[in-house]
Amino acid sequence: MQQKIPYIAISLIYWKCIMCGIVGYIGNKNATEVVMNGLKRVEYRGYDSAGIAMFENNKLNVIKKSGRLEELIGIVDTNLHHSNIAIGHTRWATHGLPNDTNAHPHTDNSGNIAIIHNGIIENYRSLKKILTQKGYFFNTETDTEVLAVFIASIYDEQKEKDMSEAVRIALSEVAGAFGLVVLSAYEPDKIICARRGSPLILGIGDNEYIVASDQTAIVAYMDKVIFPDDNEMLVITKSGYIEKTFDNVAIDKEPTKIEFELAQLEKGGYEHFMLKEIMEQAETIENAIRGRILLDSGDVKLGGLREVTDKLRDAHRIILTGCGTSWHSALLGEYLIESLAGIPVEVEYASEFRYRNPVLYKGDIVIAISQSGETADTLEAIREAKRKGCVVLGIVNVVGSSIARATDAGVYLHAGPEIGVASTKAFTSQVTALLLLAILLGRMKSISAPDGIEYLKEIKQLPEKINLILKDTSGIQQIAKRYASAKNFLYLGRGYNYPIALEGALKLKEISYLHAEGYPAAEMKHGPLALIDDDMPVVVIATKDSIFEKICSNIEEVKARGGHIIAIATAGFEGNGFLRSKADHIIEIPETLYELTPILAMIPLQLLAYYIAYELGRDIDNPRHLAKSVTVE
Ligand code: F6R
């Protein structure tokens, strides 16, 4: 990847984990406070229940509560706890009700060992049976409790007591995925943690450490981190830490600096992170192109791909893969790369890719696209591609994430942390990165230097044009008010704007809970037209381009059946006369090259979804049933 993070071939066999947030602290501060603050940062990873364990008054104190983190905050007064060591968890349940009992931390039978866990212990049933025969008992139905008891059973049998050794032995016998943190009253001067498949990061301060599933839980207190790899564990005391493999081989990693600032994790005066992130897009596009555009020669420089330039040039085929919003940018990437570079591209849902035995050749280049860099389905697709001998690249936002490290090379987005569950700024940055890649490949093939210069000049103007769209959102707010009571929406686009129709519909679905579908506009007549009546708002991307006339015909078809048209149009375009006569509402975006239009067209659609969800009083940053980082297959 761009920031030189060496490729490490991680085992992806066990990517079947639940999405949870984990945080642990050891140092001289009030550990309860640090962990509770950290949990607020990782709550996006799961919000069914939460819990904390601290060592105080010579024993472990475990407090846990079902519901949002707020519930736990309501019963944990950090001023009343004076511990220097604590661990905490936010849960996204896959099996087992999200109740108080199933919340983490889980303890062994004695209550002296507490663990928090992000993942699934696959052989927990057989372990439970053996442990039950040995006389151990269980209070919950979770796999995590079994792991706590299993560790305790090994510790109980040790002649020379050593908790980290008990954890190490236990982990070498369990199957499954884990980001695990252990706190024990037997050895209360240390936190022991380990990972296989689930993210885990160590923050390094002065005589204090934070271990967490995300850097966002660390950055308020320290800015140096290391990224343990799969099958590695850490034994952390106030005065230092040991990193080793499960085979007891010592590891020494150079700490890296966290790339973002604490302020980026705040709402900065906006009511929701989503709105803040929409409003940041001029800046994030600027970040995505900084240092990558060589205006004089019309070339693109993507430093992270330098090593694989020859392979890219010689590729007979590129396969783009991702999930959800990232899949939509992959689709746009297909259009861009095929048209600008003439290289055949296929787009695959990462979640389908490995199950359908795809035909892959050695010269194929697979590019995985991901905001979080932790999506389990995408990681599995990477594994499948590597198994079949492909070069695998990444287009990733989160620096040091599992996908960034599992790929051979790649491009970082530099969009900063995206906290709102609905992806916005990461999407436009992904499309920008793909556009740059398409031009880079195109310049190796058929794009002339003057054409390259023209593309790059227009790309440079994107931030300014984005700001024009964002300057006044009152028109979009009015439209949102008007249609918030609708039950169904259609989004139509053609060519480069078809993936934007899909993404616009996804945005609306996930935060407003309204039904919305995206379609290639011309497909309407092959079926979906039957849905149109005078209750149906139809959002149409009808910008100035070579297929504008065709889109106009599609608009006529909808209007003739009573549908309401919300058109995204190019400001100042003479063709808008037609739109004015037919569309119920027009949202204008500045003119740009056709290939760049999707980046601008996406922004009003993000705002429309946001304001409709706002009208409906939805929980915009944390929509029901969803979590930001989908580390479950
Ligand atoms: C939608 C959304 C999801 C993600 C998908 C992949 O707004 O955020 O559809 O795009 O879960 O996530 P990443 O990009 O982190 O791999």
Question: Can you characterise this structure?
Answer:
The protein is globular, with a radius of gyration of 26 Å. The chain has 633 residues and is of the alpha/beta class. The protein folds into three domains: 238 residues, 4-Layer Sandwich (Glutamine Phosphoribosylpyrophosphate, subunit 1, domain 1); 194 residues, Glucose-6-phosphate isomerase like protein, domain 1 (Rossmann fold, 3-Layer(aba) Sandwich), CATH 3.40.50; 163 residues, Glucose-6-phosphate isomerase like protein, domain 1 (Rossmann fold), CATH 3.40.50. The protein has an eight-stranded antiparallel β-sheet with strand order 3-2-4-1-10-9-11-15. A seven-stranded antiparallel β-sheet has the order 5-6-7-8-12-13-14. It has 19 helices and 27 strands. The structure holds fructose -6-phosphate (F6R). The site of fructose -6-phosphate has 15 residues, from helix 9 and helix 16. Fructose -6-phosphate binds next to helix 9 and helix 16.
Outline the fold blueprint.
Elements: E1 21-26, H1 31-42, E2 49-56, E3 59-66, H2 69-75, E4 85-91, E5 106-107, E6 113-121, H3 124-133, H4 143-157, H5 163-173, E7 176-184, E8 191-196, E9 201-204, E10 209-212, E11 224-226, E12 232-237, E13 240-245, E14 250-251, E15 256-257, H6 273-279, H7 281-289, E16 293-294, E17 299-300, H8 309-314, E18 318-322, H9 324-341, E19 345-349, H10 350-353, E20 365-370, H11 376-387, E21 391-396, H12 402-406, E22 409-412, H13 425-444, H14 449-471, H15 474-483, E23 488-493, H16 498-512, E24 515-520, E25 537-541, H17 548-559, E26 564-570, H18 576-582, E27 585-589, H19 597-615
Parallel strand pairs: 18-19, 18-20, 20-21, 21-22, 23-24, 23-25, 25-26, 26-27
Antiparallel strand pairs: 1-4, 1-10, 2-3, 2-4, 5-6, 6-7, 7-8, 8-12, 9-10, 9-11, 11-15, 12-13, 13-14, 16-17
The chain binds fructose -6-phosphate.
